[in-house]
Amino acid sequence: EAQVTQNPRYLITVTGKKLTVTCSQNMNHEYMSWYRQDPGLGLRQIYYSMNVEVTDKGDVPEGYKVSRKEKRNFPLILESPSPNQTSLYFCASSLAGDYEQYFGPGTRLTVT
Amino acid sequence: AQKITQTQPGMFVQEKEAVTLDCTYDTSDPSYGLFWYKQPSSGEMIFLIYQGSYDQQNATEGRYSLNFQKARKSANLVISASQLGDSAMYFCAMRGPGNTPLVFGKGTRLSVIA
Question: What is the number of CB-based contacts under 8 A between chain A and chain B?
Protein backbone atom coordinates (compact mmCIF):
# COMPACT_ATOMS: atom_id res chain seq x y z
CA GLU A 1 0.00 0.00 0.00
CA ALA A 2 1.34 3.41 -1.00
CA GLN A 3 1.73 5.49 2.11
CA VAL A 4 3.63 7.99 4.19
CA THR A 5 4.35 6.85 7.73
CA GLN A 6 5.36 8.92 10.74
CA ASN A 7 6.56 7.90 14.16
CA PRO A 8 5.73 8.47 16.85
CA ARG A 9 2.10 9.46 16.44
CA TYR A 10 1.97 11.07 19.87
CA LEU A 11 4.82 12.44 21.97
CA ILE A 12 4.95 14.32 25.22
CA THR A 13 8.39 15.62 26.16
CA VAL A 14 10.11 18.28 28.24
CA THR A 15 11.83 21.46 27.23
CA GLY A 16 15.35 20.93 25.91
CA LYS A 17 15.25 17.17 25.39
CA LYS A 18 16.28 16.40 21.84
CA LEU A 19 13.79 14.43 19.77
CA THR A 20 13.39 13.05 16.27
CA VAL A 21 10.18 12.42 14.38
CA THR A 22 10.68 9.94 11.58
CA CYS A 23 8.99 10.05 8.19
CA SER A 24 9.13 7.41 5.51
CA GLN A 25 7.42 7.02 2.13
CA ASN A 26 7.25 4.00 -0.16
CA MET A 27 6.21 5.74 -3.37
CA ASN A 28 9.71 6.64 -4.62
CA HIS A 29 8.78 10.32 -4.38
CA GLU A 30 11.52 12.88 -4.88
CA TYR A 31 9.88 15.70 -2.95
CA MET A 32 9.26 15.55 0.80
CA SER A 33 8.29 18.22 3.28
CA TRP A 34 7.33 18.90 6.89
CA TYR A 35 4.45 21.06 8.09
CA ARG A 36 3.12 22.13 11.42
CA GLN A 37 -0.55 22.79 12.02
CA ASP A 38 -1.72 25.18 14.72
CA PRO A 39 -5.28 26.27 15.49
CA GLY A 40 -6.32 29.29 13.44
CA LEU A 41 -3.08 29.27 11.43
CA GLY A 42 -3.61 26.39 9.03
CA LEU A 43 -0.56 24.43 7.91
CA ARG A 44 2.83 26.05 7.58
CA GLN A 45 5.82 24.51 5.89
CA ILE A 46 8.91 23.95 8.03
CA TYR A 47 11.41 22.38 5.63
CA TYR A 48 11.31 20.61 2.32
CA SER A 49 13.61 18.40 0.26
CA MET A 50 13.71 18.11 -3.49
CA ASN A 51 15.92 15.03 -3.47
CA VAL A 52 18.57 13.17 -1.50
CA GLU A 53 20.97 15.57 0.20
CA VAL A 54 18.95 18.59 -0.98
CA THR A 55 16.96 20.42 1.67
CA ASP A 56 15.67 23.97 2.04
CA LYS A 57 13.81 26.12 4.53
CA GLY A 58 10.08 26.64 4.41
CA ASP A 59 8.18 29.40 6.15
CA VAL A 60 8.89 28.46 9.79
CA PRO A 61 12.26 26.65 10.01
CA GLU A 62 13.51 28.11 13.30
CA GLY A 63 14.19 25.46 15.92
CA TYR A 64 14.09 22.53 13.49
CA LYS A 65 16.58 20.49 11.50
CA VAL A 66 16.09 17.92 8.78
CA SER A 67 18.21 15.50 6.79
CA ARG A 68 17.66 13.51 3.63
CA LYS A 69 20.24 10.76 3.39
CA GLU A 70 17.93 8.31 1.68
CA LYS A 71 15.14 8.99 -0.77
CA ARG A 72 12.45 7.36 1.35
CA ASN A 73 13.27 8.98 4.72
CA PHE A 74 13.05 12.56 5.90
CA PRO A 75 13.36 12.89 9.68
CA LEU A 76 12.51 16.06 11.57
CA ILE A 77 14.86 16.89 14.43
CA LEU A 78 14.18 19.22 17.33
CA GLU A 79 17.54 19.77 19.03
CA SER A 80 16.15 21.69 22.00
CA PRO A 81 12.34 21.65 21.95
CA SER A 82 10.43 24.52 23.51
CA PRO A 83 6.73 24.82 24.47
CA ASN A 84 6.00 26.95 21.39
CA GLN A 85 6.81 23.89 19.29
CA THR A 86 3.79 22.10 20.70
CA SER A 87 1.83 21.36 17.55
CA LEU A 88 0.52 18.78 15.11
CA TYR A 89 3.22 17.85 12.61
CA PHE A 90 2.69 16.40 9.16
CA CYS A 91 5.17 14.88 6.77
CA ALA A 92 4.23 14.83 3.08
CA SER A 93 5.69 13.57 -0.17
CA SER A 94 5.06 14.04 -3.88
CA LEU A 95 6.55 13.11 -7.23
CA ALA A 96 7.85 16.63 -7.65
CA GLY A 97 7.32 20.03 -6.13
CA ASP A 98 4.29 20.92 -8.18
CA TYR A 99 2.38 17.67 -7.81
CA GLU A 100 -0.21 16.90 -5.16
CA GLN A 101 1.30 15.95 -1.84
CA TYR A 102 0.42 12.83 0.11
CA PHE A 103 0.39 13.34 3.84
CA GLY A 104 1.35 11.11 6.71
CA PRO A 105 -1.07 10.56 9.61
CA GLY A 106 0.42 13.33 11.74
CA THR A 107 2.44 13.48 14.96
CA ARG A 108 0.97 15.33 17.91
CA LEU A 109 3.83 16.80 19.93
CA THR A 110 3.49 18.38 23.36
CA VAL A 111 6.47 20.11 24.93
CA THR A 112 6.10 20.95 28.63
CA ALA B 1 4.47 36.47 -1.81
CA GLN B 2 1.70 33.99 -2.25
CA LYS B 3 -1.38 34.09 -0.08
CA ILE B 4 -4.52 32.03 0.29
CA THR B 5 -7.68 33.41 1.88
CA GLN B 6 -10.60 31.32 3.05
CA THR B 7 -13.21 33.69 4.41
CA GLN B 8 -15.67 31.12 5.79
CA PRO B 9 -14.54 29.76 9.15
CA GLY B 10 -17.56 27.46 9.26
CA MET B 11 -20.36 26.31 6.98
CA PHE B 12 -23.47 24.22 7.41
CA VAL B 13 -25.18 22.29 4.63
CA GLN B 14 -28.13 19.97 4.50
CA GLU B 15 -27.44 16.40 3.46
CA LYS B 16 -27.83 15.88 -0.32
CA GLU B 17 -27.49 19.59 -1.03
CA ALA B 18 -24.54 21.17 -2.87
CA VAL B 19 -22.14 23.51 -1.07
CA THR B 20 -19.46 25.93 -2.22
CA LEU B 21 -16.36 26.62 -0.15
CA ASP B 22 -14.64 29.86 -1.05
CA CYS B 23 -10.95 30.33 -1.74
CA THR B 24 -9.18 33.37 -3.12
CA TYR B 25 -5.49 33.58 -3.81
CA ASP B 26 -2.86 36.15 -4.50
CA THR B 27 0.26 35.64 -6.57
CA SER B 28 2.31 37.45 -9.16
CA ASP B 29 3.51 34.21 -10.78
CA PRO B 30 1.76 33.26 -14.03
CA SER B 31 2.35 29.56 -13.31
CA TYR B 32 0.85 28.07 -10.18
CA GLY B 33 -1.20 25.18 -8.89
CA LEU B 34 -4.21 25.15 -6.62
CA PHE B 35 -5.15 22.27 -4.33
CA TRP B 36 -7.95 21.34 -1.99
CA TYR B 37 -7.46 19.01 0.97
CA LYS B 38 -9.95 17.53 3.41
CA GLN B 39 -9.10 16.95 7.08
CA PRO B 40 -11.67 14.84 8.94
CA SER B 41 -11.80 14.75 12.71
CA SER B 42 -9.36 11.82 12.68
CA GLY B 43 -6.70 14.30 11.58
CA GLU B 44 -5.31 12.96 8.32
CA MET B 45 -4.98 15.22 5.28
CA ILE B 46 -6.71 13.89 2.18
CA PHE B 47 -6.00 15.31 -1.27
CA LEU B 48 -9.22 16.12 -3.14
CA ILE B 49 -8.59 18.05 -6.33
CA TYR B 50 -5.97 20.03 -8.28
CA GLN B 51 -6.19 22.92 -10.76
CA GLY B 52 -3.26 24.24 -12.74
CA SER B 53 -3.16 27.88 -13.72
CA TYR B 54 -2.99 27.02 -17.41
CA ASP B 55 -5.73 24.40 -17.34
CA GLN B 56 -8.52 25.43 -19.68
CA GLN B 57 -11.25 23.47 -17.96
CA ASN B 58 -12.34 23.37 -14.35
CA ALA B 59 -11.11 20.28 -12.53
CA THR B 60 -13.59 17.65 -11.40
CA GLU B 61 -13.17 14.54 -9.25
CA GLY B 62 -16.36 12.67 -8.55
CA ARG B 63 -18.58 14.87 -6.37
CA TYR B 64 -15.87 17.53 -6.15
CA SER B 65 -15.38 20.27 -8.68
CA LEU B 66 -13.26 23.36 -8.65
CA ASN B 67 -14.80 26.60 -9.87
CA PHE B 68 -11.67 28.32 -11.19
CA GLN B 69 -12.05 32.00 -12.04
CA LYS B 70 -8.58 33.16 -12.95
CA ALA B 71 -9.39 36.85 -13.45
CA ARG B 72 -10.97 37.00 -10.01
CA LYS B 73 -8.21 34.83 -8.50
CA SER B 74 -10.71 32.47 -6.98
CA ALA B 75 -10.71 28.67 -6.76
CA ASN B 76 -13.88 27.65 -5.00
CA LEU B 77 -14.57 24.02 -4.14
CA VAL B 78 -18.03 22.73 -4.97
CA ILE B 79 -19.25 19.56 -3.29
CA SER B 80 -22.38 18.13 -4.84
CA ALA B 81 -24.88 15.92 -3.02
CA SER B 82 -23.31 16.40 0.41
CA GLN B 83 -22.97 13.38 2.66
CA LEU B 84 -22.57 13.16 6.42
CA GLY B 85 -19.04 11.91 5.84
CA ASP B 86 -18.17 15.21 4.18
CA SER B 87 -18.16 16.91 7.59
CA ALA B 88 -14.53 18.01 8.00
CA MET B 89 -12.08 20.87 7.71
CA TYR B 90 -11.29 21.86 4.15
CA PHE B 91 -8.06 23.59 3.18
CA CYS B 92 -7.26 25.43 0.00
CA ALA B 93 -3.56 25.53 -0.89
CA MET B 94 -1.38 26.99 -3.58
CA ARG B 95 2.07 26.44 -4.98
CA GLY B 96 4.04 28.68 -7.29
CA PRO B 97 6.50 27.53 -9.94
CA GLY B 98 9.48 25.34 -9.16
CA ASN B 99 9.84 24.28 -5.56
CA THR B 100 8.20 27.21 -3.80
CA PRO B 101 6.48 26.19 -0.57
CA LEU B 102 2.89 25.00 -0.57
CA VAL B 103 0.89 27.75 1.12
CA PHE B 104 -2.35 26.86 2.91
CA GLY B 105 -5.39 28.87 3.85
CA LYS B 106 -6.72 28.73 7.41
CA GLY B 107 -9.48 26.34 6.45
CA THR B 108 -13.27 26.08 6.49
CA ARG B 109 -15.08 23.71 8.81
CA LEU B 110 -17.99 22.10 6.98
CA SER B 111 -20.79 20.47 8.91
CA VAL B 112 -23.33 18.35 7.05
CA ILE B 113 -26.73 18.12 8.74
CA ALA B 114 -29.05 15.15 8.32
Answer: 54
